Amino acid sequence: MNFFRNYQGFTKGAVATVAALGLVLVQPVVVAPADAREAPQSFADLVDVLIPTVVNITTTQNVPQQGPRLRDMPQLPPGSPFEELFKEFFDHRGGEEQQRRRGTSLGSGFIVDPSGYVVTNNHVIQGAEDITVILRDDTQLKAKLIGADARADLAVLKVEPPAGKPLPAAKFGNSDKIRVGDWVIAIGNPFGLGHSVTAGIISARGRALSDSLDDYLQTDAAINKGNSGGPLFNTDGEVIGVNTAIYSPSGTNAGLAFSIPSNQVKQVTEQLREFGRVRRGWIGVSYQSVTDDIADSFGLDKARGVLVANVTADGPAAQAGIKRNDIILSFGGQDVVDLRHFPRLVANARVGSTVDTVVWRQGKQQTLKLKIGEQDQAEKQNASAQGSNPPNKKAPDRDGAVTSTVEQLGLTLQKVSDQLREKYGLSDNVKGVVVTRVTPDSPAAEKQLQPGDVIVEVDQKAVTTPQEVADIVGKLQGQKKRSVLLFVERQGDPRFAALRLSK
User: Fold this and answer.
1) Are β-strands 183-188 and 231-233 bridged in parallel, bridged antiparallel, or unpaired?
2) Considering 105, 108, 175, 228, which one is annotated as catalytic?
3) What is the pLDDT of residue 188?
4) Is 48 a catalytic residue?
5) N or C terminus of the chain: which is more exposed, having fewer CB within 10 Å?
6) Structure confidence by residue, pLDDT tens digits, 216-267
């Protein structure tokens, strides 16, 4: 498979028979949601209104094309009669100079503002030198690129309306309200054939293809190459998605197409119009899923939220008071459902805004005020800091090696030493206890711990010797705890692991 960018009733006789037999018929109760809609007899009236808001997009670009090069000429004996012939051929064809040809691509888009703003996919216009928008009446308008974002795969174009007349514009709907089973209409430019209309239903929500921010709507409406950038409408005539990819073994429609939800499209396009780029939120934490074992270790009622594994110094989260071992339950008034849900909440938060963040800490909920930073700026700062920080000086190791086995977990542990730093490539400032052996089929093996991992905390308590690990584990067993929470670093990557306590 490949992704391409682009109750049957009774008759009267039957009722009489049942009555004669002395049986009682119970009328079934069919419960239907109040806002559920039947399929219309025709989409024609709606399409008449919508199709003028949809445009076809063509782009051209200069594509470098290598001609025959002199160095590719066959090696011929000096003085051979063919030598001059081949040399003349290669020189005539361009020699070392590159030839260029015009490349053309086709896609779709839709008007979102009567003044001439058009939304499409980034991959439709990427690398284009000339962009032409073709209206329903075949009017061709030169387009200017206002802004594009490769990660969201969206772009905003601007055209000048002919004769200064406002263009028909589509309206965004609320993609959060669209449900699996709802009817949708796709309008686009499949295979460059021009305006085409297909219909289907929403067949799934929340699909992820390749990125942590992916949240696609899935539809079975026929979408093919060339439909990219075109709108997906609901039966109210509102845009609830932008068609962007298909899942197919052949490159043609197989009933699996994906659309970017309109709420995301609206947010991204507004930023592209305002800033020319997308400003994504950043808070400066690394985090992981909360499993049932981890929830139990923290005294949480069930597995929910995300567990903070590390906090960037002086980042927004640190300034708000968020700490390692906090479980983020709610962000900006929205529950954090799982690990996939959280990155989108953060990225979509408005840079510079302050949001309420609810965390679970030491058995209680706390609400913190967190000011959203910008993702791109944070990455630049991190790169600058890494380039300017001098390496740490290595402190002499004055402690002898202390090895111990915690049989309940299946771990052989040793205090950090210069030898272990060299053997496992540990940084000079790492602190904790080093795993030197993992017993097969043990609780540690189940959680994929391995030699070279450094245990920094046990049950949220810092440890520096194997004996401290053993003491904490023994105490938890005495309290009849089912699991123990470890905070582990692997080559600088922090994570939590909840290990069951073997009997």
Assistant:
1) antiparallel
2) 228
3) 94
4) no
5) C
6) 999 999 999 899 999 999 999 999 999 998 887 777 778 899 999 999 999 9
Give the 3-state secondary structure of residue 194: coil
d(C-alpha 284, C-alpha 371), whole Å: 11
Query: To which residue do tokens 């944070």 refer?
Result: 378
The whole-angstrom separation of Cα 98 and Cα 92 is 13
β-bridge pairing 99-113 and 117-120: antiparallel
Lookup result for tokens 């009933």? 255
Phi then psi dihedrals of residue 278, to 5 deg = -100, 130
Query: HEC string of 31-97?
Result: CCCCCCCCCCCCCHHHHHHHHHHEEEEEEEEEEEECCCCHHHCCCCCCCCHHHHHHHHHHHHCCCCC
Q: Quote the pTM value.
A: 0.68
- State how beta strands 238-248 and 231-233 pair: antiparallel
Alpha-carbon separation of residue 363 from 101, 238, 296, 366, 482 (angstroms) = 66, 45, 11, 10, 17
Helix, strand or coil, per DSSP, at residue 139: coil
CB 503 within 8 A of CB 453: no
Dump strand ranges (E) for 221-296.
231-233, 238-248, 257-261, 281-282, 285-289
Kindly name the residue from 153, 214, 293, 326 that is annotated as catalytic.
153
Structural domains in the chain, sorted by start: 1-6+51-278 (2.40.10.120), 281-384 (2.30.42.10), 403-500 (2.30.42.10)
pLDDT digits (tens, 9 = 90+) for 177-208: 999 999 999 999 998 888 999 999 999 998 88
Q: Give dist(CA 51, CA 35) in Å, integer.
A: 26
Give CA separation, 353 vs 6, 196, 367, in Å: 34, 42, 16
- Residue 341 designated active-site: no
Phi, psi of 84 (to 5 degrees): -65, -35
Residue 487: what are its φ and ψ, rounded to 5°?
-105, 120
Is pLDDT at 10 greater than 70 in this prediction? no
Extract the runs of DSSP E, i.e. beta strands, from 302-342.
306-311, 327-331, 334-335
CA distances from 402 to 394, 406, 407, 425 (A): 20, 13, 16, 19
42 classed as catalytic: no
CB count, 10 Å around CB of 309?
A: 18
Distance, in Å, from the CA atom of 119 to the CA atom of 228, rounded to the nearest integer, reads 11
Q: Which of 105, 108, 123, 326 is catalytic?
A: 123
Three-state secondary structure call for residue 342: helix
